[in-house]
Structures are given as structure tokens and as C-alpha cells.
Specification:
The complex is a heterodimer of chains A (635) and B (307).
Chain A (H helix, E strand, L loop, with lengths): L8 H6 L1 H9 L2 E8 L6 H11 L5 H14 L9 H4 L3 H6 L6 E6 L3 E7 L7 H8 L4 E7 L6 H12 L4 E7 L8 H17 L4 E6 L23 H7 L13 E3 L2 E6 L2 E7 L4 E2 L4 E5 L4 E8 L8 E2 L3 E6 L10 E4 L5 E12 L10 E6 L2 E14 L6 E2 L9 E14 L6 H4 E5 L6 E10 L15 H7 L5 E6 L6 H14 L4 E5 H6 L9 H20 L3 E5 L5 H10 L5 E7 L2 H7 L4 H6 L21 E4 L5 H14 L2
Parallel strand pairs in A: 1-3, 1-4, 4-5, 5-6, 23-25, 23-26, 24-25, 26-27
Antiparallel strand pairs in A: 2-3, 7-15, 8-9, 9-14, 10-13, 11-12, 11-15, 12-14, 16-20, 16-22, 17-18, 17-21, 18-19, 18-20, 21-22
Chain B lengths: L1 H4 L7 H19 L3 E4 L4 H14 L8 E4 L6 H14 L3 E4 L2 H5 L4 H25 L3 E3 L16 E4 L27 E4 L7 H11 L10 E8 L2 E4 L14 E7 L9 E4 L5 H10 L17 H8 L3
Parallel strand pairs in B: 1-2, 1-4, 2-3, 4-6
Antiparallel strand pairs in B: 5-6, 7-8, 7-9, 8-10, 9-10
Helix pairs in contact in B: 2-3, 3-7, 7-8
Classes of the chains: A alpha/beta (635), B alpha/beta (307).
Chain lengths: 635, 307
């Protein structure tokens, strides 16, 4: 077998044009090397660069000088010196970061992510692995499958790298003994099967001597597989698979050079797209048709996964950065709660409940880990309980977002399933996450976009849809005031609807009692109904005790900015109790009513309501008038 | 690359690199408040301009170009700069460090280290601060030098423009975190994953205009310590008895003319240049004299703010 070189030098010399045409059609393979300093990882990469003629004379001269000065190979060339970059690393003799190397043969261009092997550098390995199509896992033939081999393999499987090469290195030091090789491979395959790694090729090599790297070794007549280089040149590239999936493109940038052009720029993450294709925009659910695929080189007839393009649509659709344009009849799911795998990358610990920025695709949302289900010991794969995550720890967690996003399971689509978490104060990237699945069944139901929208419905009524949310103790006068407000608005020609606590409990919420759980659900339903009514363009009045801040906040958050008007109907408990219009306080005090707000269940006062009406100084009529005035002043 | 993209059975490595670079440029345009593209007039810059035009078409790239001028570039470079700015219709900001100008800093009296530090390192810091740029595109590649192999695509600089190798953010998948505190900035390297050969092939394929100094021609040069220096104007100091000779040379990298070494060559066309590059046996940066000043010099310069 001949040595694969940087280029066919004869062809370069005789027919440079022919050579360039050949090299235009090279593909690109990204791979990662996993192993420790002692396994000879840097030596292997140095050898690949050397054998593909990527080292120039001046570099070679410097390498020879360095090898004599600080090398570990006596008078031989120390290939590891080629790849250990930063000054600090040279002194310590270890690789502490991810370094990217490039080499190229007649068939392919390669990008190698060279990452450290020690456990304290798990985050670096995860970073390098995130973009890799293939992993080369190095094993020292003298040592066999070690704890670190298992750790590296687990990370490779976690990051979803489809192809694995088991490079059993330093075979020269065990006398090229086939029995040793076979035993290591058998041990490894057994373990690999447990973690779901399937596509494995084992190669006996010597990085130092170059055996089975670019040239088939005459020391291994018992091995009839390809050399490492041949395998790298011919193995299937994982990214090609994405073209066979349904079309998706996260929108990075809205392209508006002038009023006549509105395009959506992004990198197609999966599938293919052509003018005339029916598309759906997520999360809004709106549909349209692809009009053009615009590029500087002219419009395209088709574009595929991996290409950066600008799309225009037949209809005027509201699309912003972070939205996903997808094939209409097979859109991604939309959800706001997930089970995820999380790799913690920060020296500062993760605490569940703390909000972080989450970047997924081109979308930035607020997210919090609601629960650490279990941590994973990367060496033994044991599941451990934990309340917080430390640097380099890996866990299965539940994640909750402040809004629903389009997504795919990481396993199927890294672009729509892989994400990072960003600390809100330091802005550091603190975690890498992978979506396993959405936690709610409702995730499969898409919001059905309608052609007549909220703004159109409100405009037909010459008003702005809103919710006037009255909160306060029982007997504060919420229903009375709400009723008066509705009468006044009606007289002004406004379209309104009053949702009263008692009335709702007769129908929609008939199944609910007064436990804390049921009261939360009661308010959730009222909030959702209010939202639909606001969508219909109505001014909604609600009169519910709604005692908990978190539920009122939830109602505020499911509505758009400015739509939720919180009105605190303020009445001291003693005053409300003395009124006791329905005789409820009396019953509660007598123990006949459980969980009564103010008696044996708390009322959490609003912190920043839009309006406060104090019923000890205002009559119900004046309170209603004040609310109407405020509303009219808002337009 | 249109011919390649019509029903492609498989994307080529150049198509992948192009798509990745465009993706990076769009991320910055969408997230940074005041981005700028550093323009050095060399071949890597030419590719960057071309990619920017593609990334935002039919819009113009939504940022200006910045040339940190040392006043010692080749005349042919200044001509190219004027031509490209006009062709692309982008705003061009030229910054010259006023202190270096006042003190007449030049490579002859002050040496390459001080010259580079004052004009380039300091000049760049000034230009970024004066204009309030929070993201600056640069054309550095990871294959150029060992310390750059570990450079992130998004490289963070503290408020005083320093680079701290320990505080760089991990970059996973295609996700770049561009969030930063006021005063902090990012250098963004969209062509990080391109090699020198990729750059040349792309220039060839896309017919991108480059400065003619990359092609061999008869030029007046003097030989000093084995390096050929072109006498580009009458500021060139000649040693006693030194007479410029006309030799057929070209440049593999371009910078300040007294600091750029030429190589003897017959390559007058782009394909001939690529041919020569492929058959050559010395690496690209050898002609660039600032690297030879001290060991691990690029890493040190980067920490000080030079790129």
C-alpha cells in the first residue's frame, strides 16, 4: 500500500488544473482522538500530519531541534512536539485544551479535535466531541481497557458520535502479539455494547513507528483490515445522513435590504428545500410556500442540509431570529419542558431553580433545571443522587423553559437538540445539554395559526384585548366592582366578558375543590380561558381571590406584555370578615370550611399591581370608575 | 459555487467551510451591537470580504471595514483597498495610531517589534475603543501557527483588550455564546477551519481579486540575511553599497513592505501560485518576520492584544 500524501506531486507538477478539479470534490471528515498523554495521542496525530506531508521543511527543522532539546524519544523525532501548542502545556507536558489540526489527502480534508484525556478535562473532550463524525479511542496495548477508556467511550456515546475506531497503540512494545490484541478487542466490545456503541473498527498500530497508520504493517500479517488513514478516508460521514431527514432551518437573521425584500437567512440543519415547498414556521405554526432560495450566485433550484441560504416566502409571515422554518406536514415538536442530559462545565456549581440563558439553534430563552434526576459516574456509569452539579459532572435532569420552542431529540438532530446554558451574570458558557424528550404530551399539539389574528379581531372591535385581573380577599368586593366596570365599559361600546369565581366553579371548574392543588388548577384554567378571550379581542374581567403570587405571575406570563392588568382590591381581613356577605368567614372560623383564604390559607399580596383600589376609602362605584379611567387612558 | 449546489449529491469540503463561515458571520451580525470587519488587504481578507458579501446578500454586510494602517504597506495594497471599498459599497475606516505617527515610528529606526506593537497592537486597540466596536472579525486561521490551533472562533477580550487563555468559552456544535459585559469585546475568526490550500482553492474557484504582489513579477529587491526585501518607495533605507536588483519575485504573505520577505518565483498566474505552494517545502509564515522575534511569540502578542 502506498503512502497517501498531501497531493499527487506528479499530477500537481503536470496538470495543476486537473489536480484542482480533483481536490474541489474532496469531502470533509471531523474526528476526535481520545486517550491520555501516555497512550501516545499527540504522537499519533503528529504521525498523521507527517505521513500526509503536512509538515514543511522549516517546521521539520524546528521539530528536530526541539526533539533533541526537550523531546522524550532520544535522538528520534518526538511527534508529540508538533501538536502541543500553548507554552504552559509544553512545560507541564500535557495538553490542556482542545486544539484543532488539519490535514488532507487526495480524498478528504480532515479536522482533528485533539483533547486532553484526564478526568478533569471532561468538558474539553465534550467540546471536541460535539462536532465529530468519528472518534479514535486509543488504548495502550500494555495496559488494555482502563477506567479512562470507559470514560471516553461513555462520552463518545453520550455525544452521539456514530463511528468508533479502537486504535490499540504501542503494539511494538508487546511484540505485535495477536492474542493480546484480540483480548483487548473482546474486552472492549463487551463494554461498548452496554453503552450502545455499535460501529467499531479495531486496528493494531504503532504511532511512533507508523505501523498501520498510513502504511500497512508487515508486523501484522494476522490483521487484514484497513490502515487508520484508509479507514478515515472511506468511512461514511455522519452529517450526510441529515439530508434524508425532514427539512428544518433555524432563522439566524432577517434579511431586509429594502421594503420590497424580506428574506430569512440560516444554515439548513436537515433535509432539502425547493421553491414551491409548503413550510410551517415554529413555534407560531403559520404556514406559507417557499418562493425563492436567494444567493449571491443566483437563485437555487434546491438547497440541502449544511448549506447557508436565504429563503423568501409567498406570504407575509411574521418570522424572527430563533424561529424554525420546517416542512409543513412534518414539523418538529414544540415544548417547554424536557428531560435532558447535562454536562456541567463551570467551576461554579449548578443549582436547580436558578435561571440560566439557554441557546439552542438561533434561539435564546430563559431556562431552569427543575430537578436533577440522577448523576452519572463517568468511570463506572453508576447512577448517583445529587442536589447540585460540580465541574465535569454529568446528570439526567428536567429542564423548564419560559416559552415553548421547536426542538428535536438530540439523538436525531444535534442542531435542534443540543444546547448550551449561559450564566446570566458572568456570561460564561456553563453547561452543554442534550434533549432526550419533551415531558408533556401536549408537545405534539401545534398551535393552529389562523388567518384572522388577535390584532385583526381586536381592531374590528376598535379596542385592545386585555384581562383586568381583580385579586383580593373574599368579601373585598371584587365581583361587585367587576360587574360595575363591565357595565361602564359596555356603555362605552366596549366588547367585554366577566369571568366570575363562583360562576366558573359551576361549570368549567366543577370538578375542583379548595385544596391548594385545586386552587392552582382553578386559576390556571381561568388564565387559559382569559387568554383565548383576549385572542378573540375581548376585554376580560376576572374576579377571583387568586391568593398565590406564582399563579398570578403565571397568568401574566401566558399573556403578552401589557395585556395583564392586575388590580388589587385592598381590604383588611377584619373589614372583609365583618362584611361576610355570604357567611363564609363564619363557617371557616367554625371549622366547617377548610383552606379558607385569610383564615387557614394564606393570601399573598400583589407586589407590583397595575392598580390598587382601597375599599376602605373608595366606594364600589368610585373604585369601578377609577379602573375604567385607567383603562381608557391606556387606549 | 452555484454549479456545485444544484442538486448536490454531497457537499464538498469548501462548500462546508463556506457555509460554516457564513453562519458565524450571521450570528455576529444578529447578536453584536457594533460589529466591524478588520481588513488587512491580504488574501485571507479578500476571502473574508467575499464571504461577507455572500452571507448578507442581497443586503450589504451590516458593518464597516477597519484597516489599521501602519503607513508602511505596499503601494499595491493601498490601491487594492480603495478599489474594494468602492466595489462593495461598504464604509471603510482607516486608523493610524496618532502617537506612532507623531513619533515617526518605522521598522528601520525602531525595529520590527516596536513598530508592530505601536502601529498594529496599539493602533488596533485605539480603533476598537474609539469606535465602540464590540465585535471584530479577523481572518486568522488555526493552521497558521501552533498557538492558534487552540484559538476559539469567538475569542473574548477583557475591557483592556487582553486575551486570557484560561477564560475562553467552550464552543459546542454550532453554538456560539456572544454575551458579554459592557466594555468587553470579541474577536471573531470565521475562517478558523480553513487551511492555506483551502484559501487558494476558494480564490481560484470564486475568482476573487487579490493584490498582484502574490504573483511573480520583476521587482526591485535587496537581500538581507537571506531575506528578499522589496524597495517599494524611497523611504527604504539602503545600506552602504547596497543596490536594488530586479528579480522575479512574489509574496506569500503581505504586511509592511520592509518586514515582508519575498520569494523568487516564476508563478505569474493563480494556478501557478497554487502549484508552487503545493510543491514548496517551507511553511507560510516563514516570510513574516514578526514571528521570529522570540519563542511562542504569537501567543505572547495575542495576550497583549495583537489579534
Amino acid at each position: 500500500m502506498s503512502v497517501q500524501t498531501y497531493g499527487n506531486t506528479d499530477l500537481i507538477a503536470e496538470d495543476i488544473e486537473g489536480y484542482l478539479v480533483q481536490h474541489q470534490h474532496k469531502s470533509l471528515l471531523r474526528f476526535i482522538t481520545c486517550g491520555s498523554v501516555d497512550d501516545g495521542k499527540s504522537t499519533l496525530i503528529g504521525r498523521l500530519l507527517y505521513d500526509s506531508k503536512m509538515i514543511f521543511e522549516d517546521q521539520m527543522a524546528a521539530l528536530e531541534a526541539d526533539s533533541k532539546k526537550v523531546g522524550t524519544q532520544g535522538d528520534d523525532i518526538d511527534f508529540a512536539l508538533l501538536v502541543d501548542g500553548l507554552a504552559a502545556e509544553r512545560e507541564q507536558g500535557i495538553t490542556i485544551d482542545v486544539a484543532y489540526r488539519f490535514f488532507s489527502t487526495d480524498r478528504r480534508k480532515f479536522i482533528v479535535a485533539d483533547t486532553p484525556g484526564h478526568e478533569q478535562y471532561t468538558r474539553n473532550m465534550v467540546t471536541g466531541a460535539s462536532t465529530a463524525d468519528l472518534a479514535v479511542i486509543l488504548i495502550d496495548a500494555r495496559k488494555g481497557v482502563l477506567t479512562q477508556t470507559r470514560r471516553h467511550s461513555f462520552l463518545v456515546s453520550l455525544l452521539g458520535i456514530p463511528q468508533v475506531v479502537l486504535a490499540v497503540n504501542k503494539m511494538d512494545l508487546v511484540g505485535w502479539d495477536q492474542a493480546i490484541f484480540d483480548q483487548i478487542v473482546a474486552d472492549y466490545r463487551q463494554f461498548a455494547a452496554e453503552i450502545g456503541l455499535k460501529d467499531i473498527l479495531a486496528i493494531p498500530i504503532s504511532g511512533l513507528k507508523g505501523d498501520n497508520i498510513a502504511t500497512a504493517s508487515d508486523q501484522t500479517p494476522w490483521y487484514d483490515g484497513p490502515t487508520l488513514m484508509t479507514h478515515l478516508e472511506t468511512v461514511e460521514i455522519g452529517e450526510d445522513r441529515m439530508r434524508t431527514m425532514p427539512f428544518r432551518m433555524p432563522v439566524q437573521w432577517v434579511n431586509r435590504p429594502n421594503l420590497d425584500f424580506r428574506g430569512f437567512s440560516g444554515l439548513i440543519s436537515s433535509g432539502r428545500v425547493a421553491p414551491g415547498d409548503q413550510i410551517r414556521v415554529l413555534p407560531s405554526g403559520r404556514t406559507s410556500t417557499i418562493s425563492r432560495i436567494v444567493t449571491l450566485d443566483g437563485d437555487l433550484e434546491e438547497a440541502v442540509a449544511g448549506q447557508s441560504v436565504t429563503l423568501t416566502l409567498e406570504d407575509e409571515v411574521d418570522i424572527s431570529r430563533g424561529d424554525v422554518i420546517a416542512v409543513s406536514d412534518h414539523p418538529p415538536e414544540v415544548a417547554d419542558q424536557f428531560e435532558i442530559n447535562l454536562v456541567w462545565m463551570s467551576e461554579e456549581r449548578l443549582f436547580p431553580g436558578r435561571p440560566y440563558w439557554m441557546k439552542i439553534g438561533a434561539k435564546l430563552v430563559s431556562a431552569q433545571v427543575t430537578e436533577i434526576k440522577h448523576k452519572v459516574n463517568v468511570n463506572t456509569l453508576e447512577h448517583l443522587a445529587g442536589k447540585a452539579l460540580e465541574l465535569n459532572e454529568i446528570a439526567v435532569c428536567n429542564l423548564s423553559l419560559d416559552q415553548a420552542i421547536p426542538f428535536e431529540a438530540y439523538e436525531a438532530d444535534k442542531d435542534l437538540g443540543g444546547f448550551i446554558l449561559i450564566d446570566r451574570i458572568s456570561n460564561a458558557t456553563v453547561a452543554a445539554g442534550m434533549i432526550k424528550f419533551a415531558l408533556r404530551r401536549s408537545s405534539n399539539i401545534h398551535w393552529q395559526a389562523t388567518d384572522v389574528d388577535k390584532a385583526a379581531r381586536a381592531a374590528a372591535k376598535s379596542q385592545t384585548g386585555r384581562v383586568i385581573w381583580l385579586t383580593g380577599l373574599s368579601g373585598a368586593g371584587k365581583s361587585t366592582i367587576a360587574n360595575l366596570v363591565e357595565k361602564r365599559l359596555h356603555a362605552l361600546g366596549r366588547h367585554t366578558y366577566l369571568l366570575d369565581g363562583d360562576n366558573v366553579r359551576h361549570g368549567l371548574n366543577r370538578d375542583l375543590g379548595f385544596t391548594e392543588e385545586d386552587r392552582v388548577e382553578n386559576i390556571r384554567r381561568v388564565a387559559e380561558v382569559s387568554k383565548l378571550m383576549v385572542d378573540a379581542g375581548l376585554i376580560v374581567l376576572t374576579a377571583f381571590i387568586s391568593p398565590f403570587r406564582s399563579e398570578r405571575r403565571m397568568a401574566r406570563e401566558i399573556l403578552s406584555d401589557g395585556e395583564f392588568i392586575e388590580v388589587y382590591v385592598q381590604t383588611p381581613l377584619a373589614v372583609a370578615e365583618s362584611r361576610d356577605v355570604k357567611g363564609l368567614y363564619k363557617k371557616a372560623r367554625a371549622g366547617e370550611l377548610k383552606n379558607f383564604t385569610g383564615v387557614d390559607s394564606p393570601y399573598e399580596e400583589p407586589e407590583n399591581p397595575e392598580l390598587i383600589v382601597d375599599t376602605t376609602t373608595l366606594s364600589a362605584v368610585d373604585a369601578a370608575e377609577r379602573i375604567v379611567e385607567w383603562l381608557e387612558s391606556q387606549g | 459555487m452555484q454549479s456545485e449546489t444544484l442538486s448536490p449529491s454531497r457537499l464538498t469540503h469548501l462548500q462546508r467551510l463556506e457555509a460554516e463561515s457564513i453562519h458565524i458571520m450571521r450570528e455576529v451580525a444578529a447578536e453584536a451591537e457594533r460589529p466591524v470587519m478588520m481588513y488587512s488587504i491580504g488574501k485571507d481578507s479578500a476571502v473574508m470580504l467575499h464571504l461577507a458579501a455572500k452571507a448578507f446578500f442581497p443586503s450589504r454586510p451590516p458593518f464597516p471595514l477597519l484597516h489599521v494602517d501602519t503607513t508602511w504597506k505596499f503601494q499595491a495594497m493601498y490601491e487594492m483597498r480603495a478599489k474594494m471599498a468602492e466595489k462593495l459599497g461598504m464604509e471603510l475606516i482607516v486608523h493610524k495610531n496618532p502617537e506612532a505617527e507623531a513619533r515617526g515610528i518605522n521598522p528601520f529606526d525602531h525595529g520590527s517589534a516596536l513598530h508592530t506593537d505601536m502601529w498594529k497592537t496599539e493602533g488596533l486597540k485605539q480603533a476598537l475603543e474609539m469606535n465602540g466596536f464590540d465585535a471584530a472579525f479577523g481572518g486568522a486561521r488555526r493552521d497558521e501557527e501552533k498557538s492558534r490551533a487552540k484559538e476559539r472562533v469567538f475569542s473574548f477580550r477583557s475591557a483592556n483588550q487582553r486575551w486570557d487563555p484560561k477564560s475562553q468559552r467552550p464552543e459546542l456544535w454550532k453554538l456560539y455564546n456572544s454575551r458579554k459585559a459592557p466594555g468587553e469585546s470579541i474577536r471573531v475568526f470565521p475562517i478558523s477551519n480553513w487551511t492555506e490550500l483551502d484559501i487558494w482553492q476558494y480564490i481560484h474557484l470564486e475568482k476573487i481579486p487579490i493584490v498582484p504582489l502574490y504573483f511573480a513579477a520583476l521587482r526591485p529587491v535587496v537581500e538581507r540575511d537571506g531575506t528578499l526585501i522589496m524597495v517599494d518607495d524611497d523611504r527604504m533605507r539602503l545600506n552602504p553599497g547596497e543596490v536594488p536588483q530586479m528579480r522575479k519575485v512574489r509574496f506569500r504573505t503581505l504586511g509592511c513592505y520592509p518586514l515582508s520577505g519575498a520569494v523568487e518565483s516564476e508563478a505569474e498566474t493563480l494556478t501557478a501560485v497554487i502549484q508552487e505552494m503545493l510543491l514548496t517545502t517551507t511553511s507560510e509564515r516563514q516570510g513574516r518576520m514578526i514571528d521570529h522575534d522570540q519563542a511562542a511569540s504569537m501567543e505572547k502578542k495575542k495576550q497583549e492584544g495583537y489579534f
